[in-house]
């Protein structure tokens, strides 16, 4: 018999599915909402490198799941598309002059081809690409809705700017080097410059983004990351007056407001720290300290917030020369500046409590500032005994006047009440979440559909969308921090959309790559609609997404942004559910052989095309699922891949045997029903590796037969179909069934037949039968011996005696030889 001809088989069935549009989905009103499923993959950025083995991992899992659901009668929406705006194509355009559209579309063609070669059951009629005009028409439409709702605004924001490249850089394009921050491209110096940016008010949705998490079936780790990112904290704002004679011009200034989550530690505040950018800094700095302060402020401009917040970094700072007054005890305390205080959080100023905050402790010890204990571990602890390290844990207030003895939580509440009564502070909630910087000074993105006219912005009318990207001469930035679009005079200059005939200037910033992926789950539902983002009835039928699968690298930003837009669209009445993705699964990373990261430099990158060419798509699919649990990280193993190929080859060779209408033997029937049960449950749970093992067990059983009983072979082919769809279609056709098996009903199992046959085993002591026990047929020796030793009758006979030997004959007897 000829070798398993996977390549022919795979081409044949891919053509069949395509020609027959086997996996096309329509909103079928006869299928109720409970029996429809929306299963979504995170769509890829079509990079020049093509597909890597990480892509097919998630795609195979969802494909198996979707095929399984279809066979069980569900109406399944399973689309694929491309996140096709983005930096690499633009950078390539800067270097070569090739239009990013050309590069991008070539890459998309290659990706599509590679994805199709793996036999995924996507409904290709629904393919979307975010860079296409009929797609970004609606991205712009959503932007205008955000703008109308007051959720988009302009602000001056410090951005990384590179003089040499003449452009603004994203955080990930800036490297920290010993010579300061440098551009990743070209290693040029960069600095932070305030630039005009479009912002989206995601902070207005902070509480809802937080609360919504409780309703989602997502990995706890991802929810925790989102919670941390949103970073809601409760505390108090407290105003510290300036010491009038210790501050230049002190009496004219109102004081320093701080945000603290620990108002209970107010008596322990021994100094204050302002962010170097704090507006009070130049006003309170004494002339003696001015030079040092200015130098420090300048140095801070070169640092990112991330770098500044690193806990392990040695603390730096400078004294301003000024003093404030602690309002609880009227003590004069010095005011410092330091870069670990961020201007963008709270009030940009803190009261430092070195006794109970680790960063403050590090700072105070470095600069020899006083440390006071104001929280004791217990009421017995001596309040005078000094601290040995910062003690952030709660306890009982000490050295805190009238609040002494209160447990931390009570002290927080009581001191906050007191602050409010005195009018020097109030309860405050803060979020780490910042508004979203939504503009990019780039060419290859969605134009922001606004026109500026005499200092005001006007929306491009809805009937003039999409506002298309003009062709440009060159993609290099203008050198002014503006996007290359600013150089296209004929596009930039236009009439003000308000009908006044005044001259206007188009917004030249474009949207970030995140924009398109914020709502693609909606466009798949009705991708060709020219009148609306999607038909409301179709949105209602399919939403929310039941299962969303993708990499954990999108744990925060993409998932938060997409949830934010979805909630805004919910408020606008466009969608009727306020969370887009009910269940989220992150596939684990695939590492290189030996467990190291796959990387070009290590030369251990596996190319899916090579695997498909050598072993076939079905082998690739099953291997990636058989490597280990979907959610876990796992190393590539060529040996493992060969093993899977052999398994499929063995399945193929079974066709050498005649298919008969004979009843299968009892054992084979039992294995079949167990297999159906396990594959059904495991596929449903996405435990795909164990489902595959069980199919291997059934194949081994079939090898013990001389013929293939149709009543076993037929359901086996159905089970195999989601996993190795090409081979399954071929086997199905070979036994004369009408194609496609991909849409044939899923096999049923009989619970009774999945139970192991029970057998009576006799239990003997010194050869005499003393008891009997019922066990599943085929129970192994060790289990039999353990169970027998626990039998009460047997225990009576062997108690106090020495067991010299135990004879175990599976399915028959256990004999204890005692002395
Ligand atoms: C006094 C204090 C005593 C603090 C103590 C902590 C422990 P979260 O929980 O993250 O909200 N803080 C306030 N604004 C800051 C800023 N702009 N940059 C850096 N740190 C800032 O943290 C709030 C705490 O972080 C605040 O409470 C403040 O230090 C500091 F035993 O105030 B705390």
TrEMBL record:
It catalyses: tRNA(Leu) + L-leucine + ATP = L-leucyl-tRNA(Leu) + AMP + diphosphate. Transmembrane segments: none annotated. GO terms for biological process: leucyl-tRNA aminoacylation. GO terms for molecular function: aminoacyl-tRNA deacylase activity; ATP binding; leucine-tRNA ligase activity. InterPro entries: aa-tRNA-synth_I_CS, aa-tRNA-synth_Ia, Leu-tRNA-ligase, Leu_tRNA-synth_edit, M/V/L/I-tRNA-synth_anticd-bd, Methionyl/Leucyl_tRNA_Synth, Rossmann-like_a/b/a_fold, tRNAsynth_Ia_anticodon-bd. NCBIfam families: leuS_bact. Residues 433-625 form the Aminoacyl-tRNA synthetase class Ia domain. ATP binds at residue 600. The gene is leuS. It is an enzyme of class 6 (ligase). Its main location: cytoplasm. Keywords: Aminoacyl-tRNA synthetase, ATP-binding, Cytoplasm, Ligase, Nucleotide-binding, Protein biosynthesis. HAMAP family: Leu_tRNA_synth_B. Signal peptide: none annotated. Pfam families: Anticodon_1 (PF08264), tRNA-synt_1 (PF00133), tRNA-synt_1_2 (PF13603), tRNA-synt_1g (PF09334). This is Leucine--tRNA ligase. Residues 382-403 are annotated as: Disordered. CDD domains: Anticodon_Ia_Leu_BEm, LeuRS_core. Residues 668-781 form the Methionyl/Valyl/Leucyl/Isoleucyl-tRNA synthetase anticodon-binding domain.
């Amino acid at each position: 018999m000829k070798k398993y001809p996977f390549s022919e088989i795979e081409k044949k069935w891919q053509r069949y599915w395509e020609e027959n549009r086997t996996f096309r989905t329509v909103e079928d009103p006869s299928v109720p909402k409970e029996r429809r499923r929306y299963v979504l993959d995170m769509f890829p950025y079509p990079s020049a490198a093509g597909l890597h083995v990480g892509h097919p991992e998630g795609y195979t899992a969802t494909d198996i799941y979707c095929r399984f659901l279809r066979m069980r009668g569900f109406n399944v929406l399973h689309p694929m598309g491309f996140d096709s705006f983005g930096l690499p194509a633009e950078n390539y355009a800067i270097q070569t002059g090739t239009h990013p559209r050309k590069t991008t579309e070539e890459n998309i063609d290659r990706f599509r081809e590679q994805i199709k070669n793996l036999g995924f059951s996507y409904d290709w009629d629904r393919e979307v690409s975010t860079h296409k005009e009929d797609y970004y028409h609606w991205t712009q439409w959503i932007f205008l809705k955000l703008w109308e709702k007051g959720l988009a605004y302009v602000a001056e924001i410090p951005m990384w700017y590179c003089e040499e490249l003449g452009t603004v850089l994203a955080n990930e394009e800036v490297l920290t080097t010993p010579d300061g921050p440098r551009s990743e491209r070209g290693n040029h110096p960069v600095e932070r410059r305030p630039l005009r940016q479009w912002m989206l008010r995601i902070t207005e949705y902070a509480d809802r983004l937080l609360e919504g998490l409780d309703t989602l079936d997502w990995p706890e780790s991802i929810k925790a990351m989102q919670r941390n990112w949103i970073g809601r904290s409760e505390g108090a704002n407290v105003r510290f007056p300036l010491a009038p004679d210790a501050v230049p011009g002190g009496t004219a200034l109102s004081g320093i407001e701080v945000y603290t989550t620990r108002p209970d530690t107010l008596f322990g505040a021994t100094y204050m720290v302002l962010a170097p950018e704090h507006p009070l800094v130049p006003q309170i700095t004494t002339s003696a300290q001015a030079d040092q302060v200015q130098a420090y402020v300048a140095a801070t401009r070169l640092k990112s917030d991330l770098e500044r917040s690193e806990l392990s970094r040695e603390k730096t700072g400078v004294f301003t020369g000024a003093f404030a007054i602690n309002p609880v005890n009227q003590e004069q305390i010095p005011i410092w500046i330091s870069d670990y205080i961020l201007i963008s959080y709270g009030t940009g100023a803190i009261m430092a409590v070195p006794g109970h905050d680790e960063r403050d402790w590090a700072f105070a010890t470095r600069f020899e500032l006083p440390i006071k204990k104001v929280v004791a571990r217990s009421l017995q602890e001596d309040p005078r005994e000094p601290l040995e390290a910062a003690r952030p844990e709660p306890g009982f207030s000490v050295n805190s006047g009238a609040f002494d003895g209160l447990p931390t939580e009570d002290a927080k509440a009581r001191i906050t009440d007191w602050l409010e009564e005195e009018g020097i502070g109030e309860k405050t909630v803060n979020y780490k979440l910042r508004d979203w910087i939504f503009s990019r000074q780039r060419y290859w993105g969605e134009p922001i559909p606004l026109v500026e006219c005499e200092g005001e912005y006007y929306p491009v009318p809805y009937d003039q969308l999409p506002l298309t990207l003009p062709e440009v001469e060159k993609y290099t930035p203008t050198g002014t921090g503006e996007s290359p679009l600013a150089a296209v005079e004929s596009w930039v200059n236009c009439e003000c959309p308000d009908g006044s005939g005044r001259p206007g200037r188009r917004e030249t910033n474009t949207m970030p790559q995140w924009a398109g992926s914020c709502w693609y789950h909606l466009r798949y539902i009705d991708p060709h609609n020219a009148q609306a983002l999607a038909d409301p009835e179709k949105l209602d039928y399919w939403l929310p997404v039941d299962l969303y699968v993708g990499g954990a690298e999108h744990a925060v930003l993409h998932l938060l942004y997409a949830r934010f837009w979805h909630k805004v669209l919910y408020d606008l009445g466009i969608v009727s559910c306020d969370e887009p993705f009910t269940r989220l699964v992150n596939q684990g990373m695939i590492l290189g052989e030996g467990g190291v990261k796959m990387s070009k430099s290590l030369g251990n990158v596996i190319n899916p095309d090579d695997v498909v060419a050598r072993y076939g798509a079905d082998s690739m699919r099953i291997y990636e699922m058989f490597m280990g649990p979907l959610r876990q990280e796992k190393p590539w193993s060529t040996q493992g891949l060969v093993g899977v190929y052999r398994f499929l080859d063995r399945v193929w060779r079974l066709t050498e045997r005649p298919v008969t209408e004979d009843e299968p033997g009892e054992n084979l029937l039992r294995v079949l029903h167990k297999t159906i049960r396990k594959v059904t449950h495991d596929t449903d749970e996405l435990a795909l590796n164990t489902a595959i093992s069980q199919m291997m067990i059934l194949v081994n059983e079939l090898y013990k037969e001389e013929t293939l009983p149709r009543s076993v072979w037929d359901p086996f082919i159905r089970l195999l179909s989601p996993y190795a769809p090409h081979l399954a279609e071929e086997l199905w056709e070979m036994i004369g069934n009408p194609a496609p098996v991909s849409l044939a009903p899923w096999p049923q199992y009989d619970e009774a037949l999945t139970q192991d046959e029970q057998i009576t085993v006799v239990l003997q002591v010194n050869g005499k039968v003393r008891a009997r026990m019922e066990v599943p047929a085929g129970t192994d020796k060790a289990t039999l011996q353990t169970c027998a030793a626990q039998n009460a009758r047997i225990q009576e006979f062997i108690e106090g005696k020495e067991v010299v030997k135990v004879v175990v004959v599976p399915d028959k007897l256990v004999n204890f030889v005692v002395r």
